[in-house]
Structures are given as C-alpha cells and as structure tokens.
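Students often ask why we bother encoding 3D structure as a string. The short answer is that it lets us treat folding as translation between two languages. Here is a chain of 97 residues written in the first language.
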Amino acid sequence: MPVASLDEWILATVAEMCQQDPQNVTEDTTVLDIGLDSLALSMLLAQVETNWKCELTETDMARLFEALSLRDLIAVVRSAIPAQGSPGLADTSLATS
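And here it is in the second language, the structure alphabet:
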C-alpha cells in the first residue's frame, strides 16, 4: 500500500483533527473556516515532525501560524522537509490504497 503524499496526509490529518468530512477539506480551505486553532496547529506540527522525520525551525513555525489556507500551510511544511525522493513517513494509519 503506497504512503499518502504529504499534501494528502496534511489534508486528512487536519480533517480528522477538526472533525470535518475529508471530502470537504481541500488546499483552498481556509484555516479559519476549518477551525484550525493554535492548539490544533501545534499538535499538527508535532505530528509533521514525527511522521515526516523533519525539524521545523522557529521561522517555519511562525510562517505556519500565519498561513491563511491549507495550501499555504502545505507550502511551508514542504519547504521544511528535505528533498529525499521519498517521504519519511513513519507508521501511520493515513495510507492510501
């Protein structure tokens, strides 16, 4: 079973955290509309670092808190993950079939 892409993983994780239907969560969804508060965002950051084996800098974290849409959030996370050819996703239930 292939691992979800970073984009898919973030969208699915945010949908689950905010108790939203994953079908209604897209890159164009705003952070405000989905209800992603600072606590949920902090939890997401911890999961990103663990599951994608990266370390977000203080600058990355500040940029994440300024993200207006999930597309913005994904772009910040993408820039923080070293390009290694394949994601470093740890054991997670969010794999695609």
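Translate back mentally: Residues 6-80 form a domain with the Non-ribosomal Peptide Synthetase Peptidyl Carrier Protein; Chain A fold (CATH 1.10.1200.10). Keep this in mind for the problem set.
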